[in-house]
Design brief:
This protein has about 475 residues and is mainly alpha-helical. It is about 80% helix and about 0% strand. It has 16 helices and two strands. The protein has helices spanning about 5-20, 30-65, 70-95, 105-125, 130-165, 170-200, 205-230, 250-255, 260-290, 295-310, 315-320, 325-345, 350-385, 390-415, 430-455, 460-470; strands spanning about 475, 480. The chain has a two-stranded antiparallel sheet. Strand 1 (about 475) and strand 2 form a beta hairpin. Helix 14 runs antiparallel to helix 15.
Length: about 475
């Protein structure tokens, strides 16, 4: 009869052989300071990105004098242009062969963030003496270049999370810190930006927007610096240095062969267009429907402050209910709140309560999405045997750009169609249009998002656990990675 000591020896030997084949150990957690530092990237990103999404529409219409339809066209065209620049950015990132101490993604992210800060200020200025045609050309050119550099900032930043850790709880934590950073920047921009423009420029909107955007851009770059210095690429990835450079055909292969990614892309078109439309229309709704633009920072403070508290709950919610179920329930709650806000008469207190519930319910799944994208990157590697972080994230980012374009069309298009007149008393039709864009459109979008995540997204936590285990041991669906 075999002794207990012998059995233990065999067991330890098997465990050792098992560990020898381990490329990564997704059961281990990375240091908490890295998980927190990662969120500062989206904090910095929001200081620059959210200004454009929330205030460029009003700056160009009321400050520069461009028509609402023209502004809608600028946003729609430039966002579609940006979306097709994402594959280029993703390919450049993935094709990078010389990787130094700082890793594959951080250096590109940091350099691009500095350039993005400069371009953010340029988008919020308009040279004097230009004709209306020249103003339109300037707005198109400035925002198109801004969008291209944004792709080279955001694609490597988003890809970075997937190589920091494969641990599900780590990813949920980083998704939380990232979303806290994003909503935190929205909070500050929503509360402080308009008062800052008035404090600096007074009645001179151009002066106020220019210097306020410069202040925000500086802080944005500094936040990216914290992310750059505080994070590390910990996941060991088997990269083929002799692999051929990727192009557009690889981009479309990634989309059509990665089912979870496809579901996230479709879902994001609705969620991000809902959130951006909300942010763009808030200043119009406060000024005209509620009759006091001074309410805008107060409402944003309540709405986004509660959203930050909601995002803090992501690790707990996903641990108990899973990523997919948490997202679905949140979408349903957000849809009900927005649709009620559309049906009920305009009332400050009722509006604030419902818009806060709706925005918080949207912020939670938007935060979870970042973890889902990292999981989709791993799923793509498991299916193909080749890891393509940059181009996979670019495919996801494509949907965000399309969503932003849709939001711009909805916001500016409804203003134009319902007879909005800049800096004037609005007709009943214009007021109804502002309210519909603010509440009805996000409500419908969240209903659709709930169906998409419920029926099309198949990568639940249990299935991902099996995939992560295979990747930890250097295996993909078809065998050994790199063989």
């Amino acid at each position: 009869m075999e002794s207990t000591a012998a059995k233990t020896s065999v067991s330890n030997s098997e465990a050792k052989n098992h560990d020898d084949n381990l490329m990564n150990d997704s059961s281990k957690r990375i240091p908490i300071h890295q998980r927190i530092a990662y969120g500062f990237g989206d904090f910095g990103n929001g200081f620059m990105f959210d200004l454009g999404q929330s205030y460029l529409t009003k700056f160009w219409i009321d400050g520069v004098g461009l028509g609402a339809g023209v502004v809608g066209g600028i946003f729609a065209f430039t966002k579609i242009f940006d979306a097709f620049m994402d594959p280029i950015a993703g390919s450049v990132v993935d094709n990078r062969k010389k990787i130094g101490k700082r890793g594959k993604f951080s250096p590109i992210m940091m350099i691009s963030a500095i350039v993005l800060g400069i371009l953010t200020v340029i988008t919020f200025m308009m040279p004097t003496g230009l004709s209306m045609t020249q103003k339109i050309i300037y707005a198109y050119a400035a925002y198109m270049i801004w969008g291209l550099v944004y792709s080279f900032t955001n694609d490597p930043y988003g890809s970075l999370a997937s190589v920091m850790s494969r641990n599900v709880q780590d990813r949920s934590f980083m998704a939380t810190t990232r979303q806290i950073g994003s909503v935190g920047a929205q909070f500050i921009a929503g509360v402080a930006f308009i008062p800052l423009t008035v404090l600096i420029g007074g009645s001179d909107q151009r002066l106020g927007y220019f210097w306020a955007s410069a202040i925000f851009a500086v802080f944005g770059v500094l936040m990216f610096g914290i992310c750059y210095l505080g994070t590390k690429e910990n996941v060991h990835v088997n990269r083929n240095k002799n692999a051929q450079n990727e192009g557009f055909k690889d981009y479309f292969k990634v989309i059509f062969k990665n089912g979870p990614l496809g579901a996230l892309i479709l879902m994001t078109i609705f969620t991000i267009s809902a959130m951006n439309t909300n942010n763009q229309m808030m200043v119009f709704y406060a000024e005209y429907n509620l009759g006091n633009i001074g309410l805008q920072p107060i409402i944003n403070a309540i709405m986004m402050g509660c959203s930050i508290l909601g995002v803090f709950m992501i690790p707990m919610l996903t641990k108990h209910f899973g990523q997919k179920r948490t997202a679905m329930v949140s979408f349903v709650i957000g849809a009900v709140a927005n649709l009620l806000n559309f049906i009920l008469p305009d009332h400050v207190v009722v509006f604030v309560i419902l818009v806060t519930i709706g925005y918080t319910a949207l912020a939670i799944p938007n935060g979870i999405t970042w973890a889902m994208v990292s999981n989709a990157i791993d799923y793509g590697e498991w299916r193909s045997g080749v890891r393509k972080e940059g181009i996979t994230y670019a495919a996801f980012n494509f949907s965000r750009k399309i969503a932003q374009s849709i939001a711009a069309l909805v916001s500016s298009g409804i203003l134009a169609l319902t007879g909005y007149v800049a800096n004037a008393h609005q007709s009943a039709g214009a007021l109804r249009g502002i309210k519909a864009a603010m509440t009805l459109y996000p409500g419908i979008c969240l209903v659709i998002a709930a169906f998409v995540i419920g029926f099309l997204y198949k990568l639940d936590d249990k299935r991902f656990g099996k995939i992560a285990n295979d990747l930890d041991h250097g295996r993909w669906e078809g065998g050994k990675i790199g063989k």
